[in-house]
Specification:
There is one protein chain. This protein has 304 residues and is α/β, with parallel strands linked by helices. The protein folds into two domains: 2-215, P-loop containing nucleotide triphosphate hydrolases (Rossmann fold, 3-Layer(aba) Sandwich), CATH 3.40.50.300; 225-287, YebC, transcriptional regulation domain (Alpha-Beta Plaits), CATH 3.30.70. The chain is built from eleven helices and 13 strands. The protein has helices spanning 40-47, 69-73, 91-101, 106-119, 135-146, 165-180, 192-198, 216-223, 238-244, 266-275, 290-298; strands at 2-11, 14-24, 29-33, 55-60, 76-79, 153-157, 184-189, 201-206, 209-214, 227-232, 251-254, 259-263, 282-287. The strands form three sheets. A six-stranded mixed sheet has the order 5-6-7-3-8-9, sandwiched between helices. Strands 11-12-10-13 form a four-stranded antiparallel sheet, with helices on one face. Helix 3 packs across helix 4 (106-119), helix 5 (135-146) runs parallel beside helix 6 (165-180) and helix 8 packs across helix 11. The longest helix is centred in the middle third of the chain and has 16 residues, at 165-180. The protein is globular and about 75 Å long.
Length: 304
């Protein structure tokens, strides 16, 4: 569906994307996971044929997006970071007007709009003005609008940024339904739980380069342990406590606000901490996540 080899993008002396390789299969949910400024959105713009590449090869649906931009854009659905809805139009008119940009027949666009309003759980809001919708509703409308042309692939750039937890889960449900229907999803995110929930496969990208690739579960197995113990002793004492905890678990990471102990048995690690006479202010045993993978690979937290 989408394939890149040595893909590179430079802005003067700054390299935003530094020679990355990836391939996305039809029907796959593929993610670019990384912090802000890692090169995720730049990569998406090149795939969407709205930004040229500086070097490398890129094929989208069999086309070179630089020479066949209209053909590529006609078959993609786009969900940008920021909603670009027509705030003063009614909800249904946002879909109809957008569909006409593709040259689709009006009768088809009207039927398709009603189907998508139902899909996005916005039928009751069809005649409401967009500026009166909640943030979650606007994101669902943006996704519905991106589906108006029945795209072969959906590009979603940070689809749930700024949404509350309930709105995020509603949006995830809509995206799950698209996956079940066989739509190829390509998304960027810096939320590790979102990547684990939605992605069949992903690449971890940092400073314009890919540092790991695989399914979320495979990456966690390869780069982390089954469980993580988080303990807090206070910002001034964390480093000293970490020294006293040396040898507990398989690996220890000291962050500004907490100490992470990586082990297959977090409760056993917690017991070992107490046996050494240490009393953390707070403690938590959790399963490993992609945040831990990123920390292991880059030495810093995913969300900065």
């Amino acid at each position: 569906m989408i394939e890149a080899t040595g893909l590179r993008k430079q802005y003067g002396d700054f390299t935003a994307v530094d020679g990355i390789d990836f391939a996305i299969e039809p029907g796959e949910a593929f993610g670019f996971l990384g912090p802000n400024g890692a090169g995720k959105s730049t990569t998406m713009r090149m795939i969407a044929a709205t930004s040229t590449r500086s070097a490398g090869d890129l094929r989208v649906l069999g086309f070179d997006p630089e020479t066949h931009g209209p053909e590529v854009r006609a078959q993609l659905g786009i969900v940008p970071q920021a909603d670009q809805l027509d705030e003063e139009l009614r909800v249904v008119d946002n879909l109809i007007v957008y569909g006409r940009y593709f040259g689709l027949p009006l009768d088809y666009v009207k039927r398709r709009s009603e189907e998508l309003l139902e899909f996005a759980q916005l039928t009751e809001k069809r005649t409401a003005r967009v500026d009166g919708l909640s943030g979650g509703m606007k994101r669902r409308l943006t996704i519905a609008r991106g589906l108006i042309n029945a795209p072969k692939a959906m590009l979603l750039d940070e689809p749930t940024t700024g949404l509350d937890p309930q709105a995020r889960h509603v949006l995830w449900d809509r995206l799950f339904r698209l996956k079940e229907e066989g739509t190829t999803l390509v998304l960027t995110t810096h939320y590790m739980d979102e990547a684990e929930q939605l992605c069949d496969r992903l690449v971890v990208i940092d400073k314009g380069t890919i540092v790991a690739e695989g399914s979320p579960a495979a990456l966690i197995r390869e780069y982390s342990t089954r469980e993580v113990l988080e303990v807090r002793f206070g910002s001034a004492r964390n480093a000293q406590a970490a020294e006293a905890m040396a040898g507990i678990g398989q690996r220890i990471e000291v962050l500004p606000d907490r100490v992470l102990v990586y082990d297959h048995d977090g409760e056993a690690a917690m017991s070992a901490v107490h046996e050494r006479g240490l009393s953390p202010i707070t403690s938590l045993v959790r399963r490993s996540s992609l945040e831990d993978v990123f920390l292991r690979l880059t030495g810093r937290s995913l969300i900065e």
